[in-house]
Write a structure and sequence with these properties.
The complex is a heterodimer. Chain A is α/β, with parallel strands linked by helices. Helices cover 33% and strands 21% of the residues of chain A. Chain A folds into two domains: 327 residues, 3-Layer(aba) Sandwich (Arginase, Chain A), CATH 3.40.800; 92 residues, no CATH class. Chain A has 13 helices and 16 strands. Chain B is α/β, with parallel strands linked by helices. Among the domains of chain B are: 120 residues, Nucleotidyltransferase, domain 5 (2-Layer Sandwich), CATH 3.30.420; 108 residues, Rossmann fold, CATH 3.40.50; 84 residues, no CATH class. The chains are: A alpha/beta, B alpha/beta. The complex binds zinc ion (2 copies).
Chain lengths: 439, 557
């Protein structure tokens, strides 16, 4: 039980329900989404605890977005004020933690961001920009380079975050989610394991539908915690979706408020950022209460949904065995991550990958060819040729954070040489030097 | 003719106002052990030779219930608490004689678990055996559905004369504060009851027929006889009286700051467009966080008598007070001594003040005059710093809509009201530091009594209309009514205004003082399974603190 005072932590809460913003009136991302969460948080009097502090979110700037995204044609055209506040809320959470004002913080903000990829032609999975990634790069810019682990506990695969950090050896992205064969966005299998310069820095743990508390906590204790223990990140971020809940209308899992609280107690994230979760009355008030209490080190043992029924939610043995097998497979890959590079890359100097991205919220299709320079000294220079059915074709040259001199020089030279030709825009992004140029 | 009386911690003040003028003032030391005596004495004094028949209203402000709480001279209260799941009972306020019972209402006001009548009767029996005669009954989300609190009260009513029901304390959400508030209300119920009886007896004995009011923490008044059931509303009315006094004696509609600089502390209050700001949830007294509407004030440990020390190369001003100024026989140099040396006040013996500062000056390697200047600047600087951070805190308060985030009101004080002993000495430098026009209100020695005399009745009503459940709930009134599924925001506001009018009139408001404002109006589409299931409409209307009509701010008092 977490009721002992010595377990109390100072927890920051950045609560921004955006009561005047919706994707459309009946969309899951609508004004009502955090209304009952606010009722519950207020009624329980959480903000009166000495160790829980509420902060007003700041506003993110387009410079914060340009540090990590390539927005087409530019950042201002793909975001609304609500996105700047939601990303700003995540940044505020980071500021409060990194300045030592609080021990950990929860950005209970909307709209979410974890489906937003590096290139942004529009909105997908209710996300326009990736608020965790914007926060992570803000942290690196203002508080120095850091090894950061993002643990995505949303029910959907965090494909946007995965895409952004695919080549980054300093960002470990772990996503647990409902099996992509049964749910949007359809990706997130263990074989998706990171780019050639960052093998093992992407970890995917798909779970079968109807996984309950037992299964989630098994994965946490048998895979996520051991991996984190080995990686030793400076910061752990929970990309905290709440759509694994047994009442969520758009998913099929059986996670409970108690499970979410326990997960956050064990994971002990420095920063949690709200992602999805659309059971706005039956889950969110209780899940958020549990998470806040767990983060603050307060007793959450009495948190329970009104209709909670442990017996009815138990997962069957087949699911348990399935999860054990998946965890075994993931741990095998993790242990062999260094050896895999030799067999996978050989002596190639550049590696290409092609992908199609569908922006379901905006109905846009994009075709991408991404080229990465194989590098042992950094995440590697990345170049992306992207063509969307909006007619916009762009090219991006991206010098990674903690870049080696060779990758930077090649990137700069390439950008100088590039002619606009058939491209609408050519972008240059240098994270270390915080440079963003479009031509 | 209006009589205002403030029974404060040290002084009891009275004013008689007639024809927009202060006709008479009176001030006596408060007899802390017998507050009622002080009240009656000052009333007798100021009414001497007056025709009580000419009184139109009498308003009191008293520290009675505040003192009872601070000195822990309160009744024992049996608390019946139905919390359901959520925070563990360990994390709820620890009030003796608390019984956690079955029963649970959710955020929509739906009953999830029924109360157990036998369990509640058994609690009543236990409390009765322990000789506890007062009750607080509080349920989670009871402002969304008061039924369970009312059921429990009905079961216990025969054995307990009075029970404070949580939902009647405030329409705001906060279960822990609801528990504290109901507890305090019952804890001071007897002492307040006796006070009301005694005062009414005295007043009628004097032949006064005018309505008698008592001041609340929010700077509003309510009928004294009617206050008997909600005595907790009268706590911390002292600071409210002084802030209302400023409103009565000045004439500004700008953002402003008011300072009451005392011996040990300075109280800060903030006005937005001329109206004093209220606490978001409620006032805090002796560590009890409550839902009692109250004016938003901040107190810092710095005043005229703050002791001055020089330690480890550092000048320290306050927060302790070790006695009066050295110039007035105190043991240590104080801020007042510095002001005396600087001839900013003619309060005490200048030689004594200079002598007290001399050792400090020597250690600092400065002249006595320079030292006095440094101390004075430091004291003013501390007060100004506290004002700045208070205003900044208010401006940084979280908001929950994009509109408020981008367009919300930002308070930028232009006027600085300064009261208290050092007011004359400090007003100008503080005004300069804060870029405000300094104003010293007239009659500030009786500001509290003036504030009480002129304060109008305030009230608040919170409405939740849930068109899916076809139910409208008025939280603090315990009212629920059926509404059609096509109910609108305009209708909800109309009901709110109507109920507020009724409530205020019942509290003793005059018709001409019913200045109603809508402070919250939010409407949410409730979508279930992709279909519009209804609307969730939230409205809050209030009569905010202000002066009774006729007294346009600062008239010519
Ligand atoms: Zn999701
Ligand atoms: Zn490199």
């Amino acid at each position: 039980m977490a009721s002992k005072d010595n377990k109390r932590r100072r927890t920051g809460l950045i609560f921004f329900p955006a009561f005047d913003w919706a994707i459309s009136p009946s969309h899951p991302e609508r004004e009502e989404r955090l209304l009952y969460t606010q009722d519950q948080v207020f009624e329980e009097g959480l903000l009166d605890f000495d160790n829980i502090h509420e902060f007003k979110p700041g506003l993110a700037t387009t410079a914060d977005i340009d540090r990590i995204h390539i927005c087409v044609p530019e950042a201002r055209s793909v975001v609304t004020e609500s996105h700047l506040i939601s990303a700003g809320g995540a940044i505020t959470a980071a500021q409060k933690v990194l300045s030592g004002e609080v021990d950990n913080a929860f950005a209970l903000v909307r709209p979410p961001g974890h489906h937003a990829m590096r290139i942004v032609h529009g909105a997908r999975g209710f996300c326009n920009v990736n608020i965790e990634a914007i926060m992570v790069e803000y942290i690196r810019k203002h508080y120095g380079p850091k090894r950061i682990a993002i643990v995505d506990t949303d029910c959907h695969h965090g494909d946007g975050t995965q895409d952004i950090y695919w080549h980054d050896p300093d960002t470990l992205c772990i996503s647990i989610h409902q099996d992509g064969r049964t749910l949007y966005p359809g990706s997130g299998f263990p074989e998706e394991f990171g780019g050639p310069n960052a093998l093992g820095m992407t970890i995917n743990i798909p779970l079968p539908p109807r996984t309950s508390d037992e299964g989630f906590l098994y994965v946490l204790e048998e895979a996520i915690m051991p991996i984190l223990a080995e990686y030793k990140p400076d910061l752990v971020i929970n990309s905290a979706g709440q759509d694994n809940h047994y009442t969520d209308p758009i998913t099929n899992m059986r996670f409970s408020a108690q499970g979410y609280a326990r997960l956050n107690e064990i994971l002990a994230p420095d920063i949690a950022v709200l992602e999805g979760g659309y059971s706005i009355e039956k889950a969110l008030p209780y899940v958020n209460l549990g998470i806040i209490l767990a983060m603050a080190g307060l007793d959450y043992s009495s948190v329970r949904e009104p209709d909670y029924h442990a017996e009815a939610l138990r997962q069957n043995d087949q699911i348990t065995r399935h999860i054990e097998t998946t965890v075994g497979q993931v741990m095998q890959l993790w242990k062999k991550r260094r050896e895999i590079k030799k067999t996978l890359v050989g002596d190639a100097r550049y590696v290409k990958r092609n992908k199609r991205v569908y922006y379901d919220t905006d109905g846009i299709s994009e075709q991408q060819e991404e080229t990465v320079r194989i590098c042992d000294d950094c995440g590697g220079l990345v170049m992306i040729d992207s063509f969307a059915d909006t007619g916009r074709r762009i090219f991006a040259v991206i010098v990674p954070g903690q870049s080696c001199p060779v990758c930077r020089q090649e990137g700069e030279a390439f950008f100088d040489r590039m002619e606009k030709g058939r491209y609408r825009h050519i972008y240059f992004q240098d994270r270390d030097r915080d440079i963003y140029i479009a031509k | 003719m209006i009589l205002g009386i403030d029974v404060g911690g040290t002084h009891t003040d009275a004013v008689l106002i007639e024809g927009f003028k202060i006709r008479k003032k009176a001030k006596i030391p408060t007899d802390a052990a017998h507050l009622l005596n002080s009240l009656l004495q000052v009333a007798t004094e100021i009414l001497a030779g007056e025709d009580p028949g000419k009184l139109q209203r009498v308003v009191l402000s008293t520290t009675l219930s505040t003192n009872a709480i601070v000195q822990d001279k309160v009744e024992r209260v049996g608390m019946v608490v139905a919390g359901g799941p959520g925070l563990s009972p360990e994390l709820l306020p620890r009030i003796p004689h608390t019984f956690h019972v079955a029963g649970y209402v959710n955020h929509r006001g739906e009953i999830i678990a029924e109360i157990d009548r036998e369990e509640i009767a058994a609690v009543g029996e236990k409390l009765r055996r322990e000789g506890i005669g007062r009750l607080g009954i509080v349920g989670k989300f009871s402002t969304r559905n008061p039924a369970q609190e009312e059921q429990a009260a009905a079961i216990l009513s025969k054995d307990f004369g009075h029970a404070s029901l949580g939902h009647r304390m405030s329409g705001r959400l906060n279960f822990r504060r609801r528990i504290e508030t109901a507890y305090l209300n019952s804890a001071v119920w007897d002492i307040h009851q006796r006070f009301v009886t005694d005062v009414l007896q005295f007043v009628r004995g004097q032949g006064i027929e005018a309505p008698i009011y008592i001041l609340k923490a929010d700077g509003g008044t309510f009928d004294l006889a009617g206050s008997a059931d909600y005595p907790v509303q009268t706590i911390l009315s002292g600071p409210a009286a002084s802030i209302m006094g400023i409103l009565g004696m000045t004439k500004y509609d700008d953002d402003a700051v008011a300072l009451d600089i005392g011996g040990t502390t300075t109280d800060i209050a903030v006005f937005a467009d001329g109206a004093p700001l209220l606490e978001n949830l409620g006032v805090t007294i002796e560590g009890h966080k409550t839902l009692i509407r109250g004016l938003r004030t901040r107190s810092i440990g710095l005043g005229g008598d703050s002791a001055v020390r020089y330690e480890e190369g550092q000048l320290r001003v306050g927060p302790q007070r070790e006695g009066p100024a050295a110039a007035l026989g105190g043991p240590l140099p104080t801020v007042t001594d510095a002001m005396i040396v600087l001839k900013r006040t003619a309060l005490g013996d200048e030689n004594l003040a200079a002598a007290a500062l001399a050792p400090l000056a020597e250690r600092m390697g400065r002249s006595v005059a320079d030292t006095a200047e440094i101390i004075f600047a430091e004291a003013c600087g501390k007060i100004a710093g506290a004002v700045r951070s208070f205003v900044e805190e208010i401006n940084n308060e979280p908001v929950y809509t994009i509109h408020e985030m981008l367009e919300g009101k930002v308070i930028a004080p232009k006027i600085l009201h300064v009261m208290g002993g050092p007011a004359l000495a400090m007003a100008d430098p503080l005004g300069e530091m804060l870029a405000c026009r300094p104003v010293i209100p007239p009659h500030s020695e009786v500001a509290n009594a003036v504030g009480a005399a002129l304060a109008r009745t305030t009230a608040e009503v919170s409405i939740l209309a849930d068109t899916e459940r076809r139910r409208l709930t008025i939280g603090e009134e315990g009212t629920q009514m059926e509404i059609p599924s096509r109910y609108t925001m305009a209708q909800a506001i109309a009901v709110g205004e109507e109920k507020l009018r009724e409530k205020a009139l019942a509290m003793g408001a005059r018709k001409e003082d019913l200045e109603i404002e809508v402070v919250e109006s939010q409407e949410f589409n409730m979508v279930r399974d992709m279909y519009m299931a209804g609307k969730n409409i939230r409205v809050k209307v209030q009569i905010k603190p202000g002066l009774i009509s006729g007294f346009a701010r600062g008239q010519s008092l």
